[in-house]
Amino acid sequence: MKLLIVVGARPNFMKAAPILKAIRQFNASQGEWFDPLVPILVHTGQHYDAQMSDAFFADLQMPQPDVFLGAGSGSHAAQTAEIMRRFEPVLAEQAPDALLVVGDVNSTLACALVAAKLSVETRPLIAHVEAGLRSFDRSMPEEINRILTDQISDLLFVSEASGIRNLRAEGIPDEQARFVGNTMIDSLREYESKADFSAALEHFRLKRGSYALLTLHRAANVDARDSFVEILEGLRELAGSIRIIFPAHPRTQKEIREQRLDVYFNQTSGGVGIEMVPPQGYLDFLCLMKHARLVATDSGGIQEETTALGVPCVTLRENTERPVTLEVGTNLLAGTKRESIRRAIQQQLAFRGDRRVPEKWDGMASARIVQILADRIMAKTPAVAGLPTSAAGLQKNA
Ligand code: UD1
Question: Which residues fall within 8 angstroms of residue 283, CB to CB, at 6 or more apart?
Fold first, then answer.
C-alpha cells in the first residue's frame, strides 16, 4: 500500500515528520500477513536552502526525500504551476493508493490539484492534514490554498474543533472530516526536552525568561514599508525593556534591504534595537520559544506551538485561522497598528502563561491519521480486503 507524502516549505516539515514515524510504528505493530504502508516522500523544493529546509530534515530525523522536484521560488502562479508541472509525472509513475498533503502552502494545493484531476481509475485517495482552518480573509494566499485543498480532498484531518464547523459550513459531508489533533504538536512533544540541549541561549547570551522572540514574514506585513514600519514602531517600547531576538525569514531580510529599514535593527543609530539573526533550525527555535518571556509573530504555527508550551504570544495580524489558541491558549491578537501592538504586548507581559492544551493536542495525532488511512486504503484494496484487520486494534480515538 503506497502512500505519497508531499512536503515543500518550512512549516510542512514538522507536520509530516511524525506521520512518517507513525507509519513505521504502525507497520511494525502489524502481523506477518500485513501489506505494509510504504511512504514515498516528495519534496517540491518550494523552500530549498540549508536554513529553510535541510536543517529541518536533520533536526526532525526525517529520511531524505525519495523525490525532489526543485520547483524553487517565483510568483504564486509561477510557483504553483511549476510544482504541478513537475509533480504530475511523479504521481503517474508512483501511482500511490493515497496522497497526503499538509498545511496551507502553495505545494499543498498544487499537488492536491494534480491528483484531483486524474481519471477515476488512477486517482489516489487525497488526504489533507490541517484541514478546515479558516481566517475568513481571502486576501491571504494561504486561505485560498486551504479552501481549495479542502474542496478537492477526500479525507480531511482536522486539528481543532473550529475546523469541523468550518468544513460543515462549506458543505463538506461530516464523514469526510476527522478531528484527529495536531501533528505539529506531535513533533513539539517529541522534541521539547531535546531542545533544551540546544546551544541557542548560550549562543545569543540569553537567560531563560529574559527576552522576547519575534518572527515576521507575511507579505501583508513586510512587503509594504508603511505596514512594516507600523509593526516595528509597535515593538519599540518592548525593545526598550528587554532584548528582542528576531530570526528573519529570507523574504523579510530581502524586504529590509530593499526598503532600507536596517536602521530599525541598529541600536547605535537610534533604531528600535531589534536583534536580527538568521533563520533558526527546529530545535534551536523550539528552545528559543520555550524559554522566551513573550513571543510576537505573524506565523500560524507559532501561535499553536506557544499555546502548547504555555508561553504568552502576541499575534501581529488582524485575524487568525487558529481560534483555539485564543480560546484555550496563550495567544492574543494584536492587530497591525503600533498602538494596538503596544497594548497587546503590555497585556501579555502581565500574563504569566498557561498550560491548558487544546483537545487532542496530545502527541497522538499522527497515529490516529495513519490508522484511519490504513483502514481506508485496506477497505479499497481488493487484495487485502477481507483479511483480519488487527490494524483496527491500534488507536481508535478519532
Ligand atoms: C511560504 C508559505 C507560508 C509559510 C512560509 C513559511 C505559501 C503561499 N506561503 O511563504 O504559508 O508560512 O512559507 O516559511 O506557500 N526563499 C529563500 N530560501 C528558501 C525559500 C524561500 O531565500 O529556501 C525566498 C524566496 O526567494 C522568496 C521568499 O523567500 O523571495 C518567499 O518564499 P516563498 O516560498 O515563495 O513563500 P514564503 O513567503 O516563504
Answer: 59, 191, 194, 195, 197, 198
